[in-house]
Amino acid sequence: MKLDSLTLHHLRMPLVAPFETSFGRTTERECIIVAIQSEGLTGYGECAAERDPGYSYETAGTAWHVIRDFITPQIMGQDIRDVHDYQRRVETIRGHHLAKAGVEMALLDLRGKKEDCSLRSLLGGIRDHVMVGVSVGIQASSAVLVKTVGKYLEAGYRRIKIKIKPGRDVNEAIAVRKMFPEIKLQVDANSAYTLQTWQVLKPLDELDLLLIEQPLNEDDIWDHRILQREFHTPICLDESIISPRHARYALEMEACKSINIKAGRVGGLSQAVVIHDLCRERDIPVWCGGMLETGVGRASNLALASLPGFILPGDISASDRYYTEDITLERFTLNPDSTIDVPSGPGLGIKIDLRALKKYTLTELRLDARQQ
Ligand code: OSB
Ligand code: MG
Which residue puts its alpha carbon closest to atom 1 of ligand 1? Predict the structure, then answer.
């Protein structure tokens, strides 16, 4: 596949409601959309790096720099055979997984379009619709949280995740569990606790939660092992798993009983599939995480979640949970059984709304093969 040019779009899109986690509050989401042109076709990818280095050290700014100055020169004007070829070329760039993943997604969309094959098939997906849930940010009070959760349940979501942080944890979870005794419920701390402060979370173990996501720091895989021994509830790792190697470490250490797989965090869909396979061999259930993606990243998440090992509901909600206007012509909707259909068209199976893309683009940069 000979690559002719690559265009970067730095986007800022208003969320339907602010999204608050232990690391901050987002009202307008930023990301980088990557468009790769090759032999008359265009492949799109979404780099989920946010404005601030809260969830990850990467930001939209660092991703722009790394894609423009380091990734693009490795691939532009070149014949890229497949994702393994791509991964080999970017191997010398340390870290910056969100940046690498955004470009890989565009390459896979291109390949699917060239071969008239859906991303789902390219990845080895087996489902045409996937179980989903909703990730609810920290609300003004536990009463507001209970109301917000009720609204999502009414909309048809059958799995709820609530964000927690010190001072806003056990009480929130108890309030939701009391009002909705039967629902599938889980919590996500986004690294807000330590081995010194985790004890306050102990009552969570009595709430019949599906899992407790990333209570400790990104580089605390060993400490998560210590914590998992204190809880019956499965610990699930998100931030800590940045590669197939880290997944293996966590599983060998018994630091968790589940992994939230995000293609961005692990350097691309190809790496996400490797982690999926590793977990499947060991009967470790995985699920697909989200990062408030546009329709581009959402299509990719749906394709990934269609692999057989994704047996827990993913953080992939309907488009209207995030944006009143999206950059894809398709809008993803929730089916009555709390599933969303996996796109079946070539590549990501979506069409870009070029007018909306332009509307939300802060900066655009085209890099041609000749300039490299
Ligand atoms: O920790 O899973 C997370 C959003 C941004 C960054 C990190 C996380 C999240 C979410 C939202 O929980 C998931 C979604 O609905 O996209
Ligand atoms: Mg998380």
Answer: 190
